[in-house]
Amino acid sequence: MMTESRGAGLGFNPIRGGAVGEDDPEGTTESPLRPSSDPGNPVASPPRRRKEEMSESDSRSAPGRKRKRVTEPSDGDSAGSGSDSSGSPIRRPKAPLMPFCTEEDGTVLYGFSDDQAVMDRYHDDMQKYMKKSARHKRLMTLAPSSTTVRRTPKETEAVLNYAKSVLSLSAYLDGKMINQCTGIVVGIDAFKNSTIILTSALIFCTKKPLDDWTKKDYATEAKVNVHMLDDSTSDCHLLFFSKHYEIAFFEITGAIQLPTLSLEANVEFGQEVFLLARDTNMNMIYKQDKVQLVDPCEHQHDHYHFINGPIPQCGTGGGVLDVSGKIVGMLFYKLPLVAFIPSSLILKCSSMWQHFGQLARPQLGLKLRTLAFIDFPRIELLSRKFSISSGLIVGEISAKCDAEKLGIRAGDVILSCQNKPVSSIVQLEHVLLGIGEKHLEKSNDLSSKVEVEISVFHVRKHTRSVITLRVELSDNLEVFHSGNTYLLCCIIDRITVPCLYLIIFNENSW
Q: 149, 249 in Cβ contact below 8 A?
C-alpha cells in the first residue's frame, strides 16, 4: 500500500462523472464472390489441361472445349481487370468462353477457349482476383460481423460515446512491460487539473497465483502509461489501490479533456448489462449479457459477480455498464466466466480512502456461498422447517480462526451481521466495510481487533445462535489458511432434514 500518498490530493467523486458520452496486405486465398447477374462465370478458375487430356465426351461435341450449359456469355470486365492494386476496384475477370453449339430448344452452349495463352492469362487474373477479394473481406467495414444482436442507430451512438471513456494502460518495470489492462475515466479534479482513471491492481502485479486468497506481489514503483484513443500516451501515477479488492486509481495531470463515466451503486442478479474494454491493439471489446446467478469458485474472491465470458486478460479493468451507460462493475479476467466487482464496493473503498487514507476490513476467515442459489426443494424445506429462506452458506473456514473456535462449521448459514440481514455476499462486504469505517473514525490503528456479531443457523444441530467474533482489521488481502483439513464425505440426514451437507473434518477429530 502506498502509505506515502495516503489521503493526499484525492479530491474526486467517481459517482459525479457523467458521459454521453486496409486493406490487409496479407490476404488469404478464398473462393471468389460470384455476382448473381453473371451465371456464365465459373465458380473457380478451370484446371489447365492439354488438348490431348480432353475426354472423349468433350471432343464429341466440340474438340478441345469443355462444355458448360448457360443461356448467354458473361459480360464481365476484361481479363486484366483483376489487378492486385489496393486502390483499384475489385472486378471478376471475364471468362474466355466461346459458343460451340446450339441445342434444339435454342440454348447456346459455351466452353472455355482452347487457346492456352488466353487460359493462362485468365488463370493468373483469377488468382489475383481471389487474393484481392480475400483482402477486401478483411477490411474493417467489410469483415463479417460477429454480433447477433441488432441495435438502433441511437444505441450505437450511445455506446460509441461511452467508449470514449475506456482507455488502455500498460505498466513497465526496468523497461520491460509487465502487464496491460483496460482503464475507465471516472472523475475530473478541477482543482488539480487532473483526470482520475479506475483500473485493476493487476496492472502492476508481478506475482499472480491462480488462487485469489493467496498473497500477490505488486510493483508499485512500475511506470504506468495511459494509451489515448488518438494513439498518444500519457504518464500517470498511482493514487491508491486495494490488495483485497484489487482495484486501483491512477491520476493523469495536465489539461487533458476526457469524458467521464459515473459509477452506479445498484446492480441485481439477472440484470441486463454490457461490457466495454480494450484489447492489446486498442480495439474495443463489446459484449451484451446478464449478471449470472452463480457463486464464485472456491479459489475466487467471494465478492465477485459474473457474466458469460471469456475476455482477453488485457480486458481486466474494463467496465460493466447498465442500459443507461453507468458503470455497475469493473471486469476481471477469469475462466470460465468473466468476473466483476460491483461498483458499490469500489465507491465504498474510494470514500474510505479519501477520508482516512487507508482501508479497514474485518477478516472473518470464511468462504461463503449464496443460499438463494441452491435448488428450490431445499430452500422450501429450510423455509418450512426453520423459517430460513435467505442467508449465506459457510463453504469453508480458515484454520484456527475465531469462527472455527466458536463452533461455526461448513454448511452453517449466516443469517445476519451486526443485526442486518445478509442475503448476498456483497451485502455482507458492505457491513464489514462499515465496521472498518467506524473503527477508523475513532482510530487509525489497525493493530487492534474489532467485534463482529453474526447470527448463525447450525445446520447439524438445527439451532440458531448469536456469535460475537473478535477479528483483525486489515487493508491487505485476506489470506485463507486451509490447515490440515480433508473433505471426508457427503452425508444425508434422512431423519429430519433430507438435505445434502458437506462436512469437513480435522485430522485430529478422526
A: no
Residue 86, SS3? coil
Distance CA 124, CA 144 (A): 27
Least Cα distance to 488 among 507, 510, 504, 501 occurs for 504
Cα(325)–Cα(37) distance, integer angstroms:
46
Q: Is the peptide bond before 47 cis (omega within 30 degrees of 0)?
A: no
In terms of phi and psi (left: phi > 0; alpha: psi -120 to 50; beta: otherwise), the region of 367 is beta
The count of other CB atoms within 10 Å of the CB of residue 440 is: 20
Q: 110 Cβ partners below 8 Å, 6+ apart?
A: 40, 68, 70, 73, 97, 98, 99, 100
**Selection from 92, 83, 78, 111 nearest residue 38 by Cα:** 92
**pLDDT, tens digit (0-9, with 9 covering 90-100), for 407-465:** 999 999 999 999 999 999 999 999 999 999 999 998 878 888 999 999 999 999 999 99
Tell me the residue type at 400. K
Q: How far apart are CA 110 and CA 91, in angstroms?
A: 22
Backbone angles phi, psi at 126, to 5 degrees: -65, -40
Tell me the pTM. 0.73
What CA–CA distance (Å, rounded) separates 484 from 167?
A: 45
Give the chain's count of helices (H) and strands (E): 7, 26
The C-alpha cell 479519501 sits at: 354
Cell 474526486, located at residue: 12
Give domain 3-21+164-348's CATH number out of 3.40.50.10300, 2.40.10.120, 3.90.1150.10, 2.60.40.4070. Answer: 2.40.10.120
Among candidates 122, 125, 124, which has minimal Cα distance to 112?
Answer: 122
Lookup: cell for 323: 442500459
Q: pLDDT of 263-275, one tens digit each?
A: 999 999 999 999 9
Q: Which three cell numbers stand for residue 233?
A: 500516451
Can you name the residues that pair with 233 across neighbouring β-strands?
227
- 66, pLDDT greater than 60: no
Spatial contact of 373 and 488, defined as CB atoms under 8 Å apart: no
The C-alpha angle with vertex 342 and arms to 337 and 348, in degrees rounded to 5, equals: 150
Q: Answer for the pair 362, 436: CB distance below 8 angstroms, yes or no.
A: yes
Cell numbers standing for residue 380: 422450501
- Counting every residue, how long is the chain? 510
Is domain 360-509 annotated with CATH 2.30.42.10? yes
Sorted by where each begins, the domain ranges of the chain are 3-21+164-348, 51-137, 360-509
